[in-house]
Amino acid sequence: MEKLKLTFNNQELTATLADNSSAQALAEKLREGDLTIKLDDFANMEKVGSLGFSLPKNDERVNAVAGDLILYQGNNFVVYYDKNSWNFTRLGKIDIANPKDLKRTLGNGSLTVTLSLA
């Protein structure tokens, strides 16, 4: 499984990419260079930001939990720090088990994340 590196406020986390065409397309894009995304807090459960391009969708009913990386509407990158259930495309999962640690890393309000291949 391919690994993704996420850098938030100089703190690095790793994630394991999902096994689908969406995650593969994201990895291909990252082979061209790192991607920085502004993430805004939404509904006290997720950080959401525009990729600036579209990826193929593989939507299915997902019960998202803290650490899930989701593609929303084909062009939005989402990091969950709480639970939600909806039709999404799973991109991967942050390699961290403690939701409170993730929420602390993400903080309140907006932030930027830089995505790169690990």
Would you mind describing this structure in some detail?
The chain is of the alpha+beta class. The chain has one domain (3-117): Cyclophilin. It has two helices and nine strands. The protein has an eight-stranded antiparallel barrel with strand order 1-2-8-6-7-4-3-9. Strand 1 and strand 2 (11-17) form a beta hairpin. It starts with a strand and ends with a strand. The model has no long low-confidence stretch (mean pLDDT 95).
Strand line-up across the major sheet:
1-2-8-6-7-4-3-9
How far from one another are the termini? 11 Å
Q: Which radius of gyration do the C-alpha atoms yield?
A: 13 Å
Main beta sheet strand tally, sense and closure = 8 strands, antiparallel, barrel
The number of helical segments is: 2
Helix content: 10-25%
Tertiary shape: globular
What is the tally of beta strands? Answer: 9
Kindly estimate the percentage of residues that lie in beta strands according to DSSP: over 45%
CATH class group: Mainly Beta
CATH architecture: Beta Barrel
Mean pLDDT: 95
CATH names the topology as: Cyclophilin
Q: Secondary-structure element order, as H and E?
A: EEHEEEEEEHE
